[in-house]
Protein: DNA-binding transcriptional LysR family regulator
Organism: Aureimonas pseudogalii
Amino acid sequence: MSMFLAVAEERSFTRAAARLGVSQSALSHSVRRLEAKLGLRLLTRTTRSVAPTEAGERLIETLRPAFEEIEATLASLTELRERPAGTIRITTSEHAARSVLWPAVSRLTAENPDIRVEIDVQSGLTDIVAQRFDAGVRLGERLEQDMIAMRVGPRLRMATVASPGYLARFARPETPDDLAGHACINLRMVSGSVYAWEFERGGREVRVKVEGQLVMNDVALIVEAAAAGHGIAHLVEDRVAPLLGDGSLVRVLEDWCEPFDGYYLYYPSRRQPSPAFALLLEALRYRD
């Protein structure tokens, strides 16, 4: 049943086999044996995908919470050990991983050699229950309502920046609307859409779709392009702080970049924290 659940969640025998550390043939044999025992087809298989049937969906609804309860119980048994142990899987964005998560995980694993942490960096939102993550780290404004959330970082701020050479050639924008006359370096999101630049001043929020020659899906390249004078960029402030410090980049529209909610760790409300997970919560908790 655990093998069937893995295939159903991954929608792939290949990915499920990799996740479980078994061969695809063993996985396929186990699922067929379960289907034969029930006398029902649980998965619809094509050359390109695998999807649960109606019977499979009903079985998943029962199995998923049951296995989660079993895993929580097994994790709680580590309380009987002298040292906390176990594996914690976390999904997060690249910026959150580097600025908030990794510093805490580095300390945690150094002090607790029996705790393993898997960090999965993804730009898009992830269903942590379906993907079997223990927790996620995302911006506070993007959290789901049925999750427990804990603040793990300070408030953030955007910075609209350009090189001194670029601003010597073109008039400095005074409002977000002025960006229409500028070469702006766009960010392509993992969803495929282009990020609309967000501004706020005095309670007024503005979203601007900017234009320019360059569209990139890598923030480091956007910073490099802006510093080289190719146009204006709009990024989280700490991404460009070193270049602002040495004068390679200059801020514009600073009064339109107000602070906003930073990163939160979130996890299912029904989860009972294991000793290892409780240590992670303590390591990540943000204190003003």
In short: The chain has a mean pLDDT of 89. DSSP finds nine helices and 14 strands in the chain. The longest helix spans residues 54-76. Residues 2-76 form a domain with the Arc Repressor Mutant, subunit A fold (CATH 1.10.10.10).
